[in-house]
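Recap slide: Lysosomal Pro-X carboxypeptidase-like isoform X2, sequence and predicted structure.
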Amino acid sequence: MKHHSLSSKWLLLVFLTHSTYFTATHTLTIPRLSPVAEWETTIRDPAVAIDKDKIKTFYYKQILDHFNYRPESYTTFQQRYLINFEYWGGANSSAPIFAYFGAEAPIDNSPNTIGFLVDNAASFNALLVYIEHRYYGRSVPFGSREEALKNGSTIGYFNSAQAIADYAAILIHIKKKLHTHNSPVIVIGGSYGGMLASWFRLKYPHLAVGALASSAPILYFDNITPQNGYYSVVTRDYREASETCYETIQKSWSEIHRVASLPDGLSILSHRFNTCKPLNEAYELMEDLRLMYVYAAQYNHPPRYPVNVICGGIDGASFGRDILSKIFAGVVAYKGNTSCKVNAPTNASETTVGWKWQNIKLVLQRFGSNIIFSNGLRDPYSSGGVLENISDNLLAVHTVNGSHCLDILRANQSDPEWLVEQRKKEIKIMKEWIAQYYADFDALKGTHK
């Protein structure tokens, strides 16, 4: 999938992208996909930790290129996968396998953060598998991240078609190794990983009986979804939270430019926003604020609802009544007690560097079945999601107040009823897939008696 560079004609439509915000050298891109917000964790509930002794780490000797037959195609690298055996009914039970597809990040924390698998494993007696995406974490070809991302020839193997072929090879390996030949597999992913799960079911239907694709914007391509789709949802989220908050944010961009143009204006802004280092240009502050706004909208999870947290700070105006004081109050409300609030130093991660290179369009979409496309309409990426049933077994499950990948995170007692019902609906569909698999399998055995 391509990150859209949004042109100024689209940016006029939404408050976070006010036309004065940009110069010829600064255009906006849609934030990367991820089931969990890694950029900011201060307002999220901590995940319930899983005993690490229950998670076993394995490595599979993966080939570099699944689709060509040149000598270099057979170069191998170690691809990591994790297995949780705690709930498994064993090979003889033909119990199902839930396979979570790692996306644009290491899988170290996936067993904790993607709680949907653990929450439901016992009722299925399921084996839980987590597979890391090539070029991330410890699954890096060519010996190092630097070599893997060195040039076009090495980066060329970094795409979604190769990734889902990796997953296929590892699942075949696991079923052979554990003697689970008769166990149905359901693949699960969130965000980009949800796209991979849906594509996997389309391309390898013989390996998975179904797929749960959470917050998967599979329609977010040029000429399918409007370029402003993501930010139009962000705008709606803030307007629904507070019209006065929305108006304050809209006005703030021109006010930041006005102050920045004053003598020592950047120093004034650096002081007022308690930046981690002096600002060199107004864009640095604007970019930091933009990221805060869009990530809060994308991960607007209950019970805290970060958009409401920001707007509560802005509308409360605890630092003064002028526009910039209100904006700073929103920053403090969101980021909490940190030593500095804006432009903290960061290093380019394997996620942000690699994400620019992935070519998701390499995966050819085919007609398929047994896929759940789940979305929360408060998630900006839902603008590129499947929101209506395509057929009787290509199903859309969405909630009006849901946010990015909320359904596959761990359940807790504070979950609203609509979220509980969404998960129940997904589980019911998955049980139907598995029941049909067992019925077909028994019928097939009967024909060979």
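The longest strand covers residues 55-63.
The mean pLDDT is 85.
(End of recap.)
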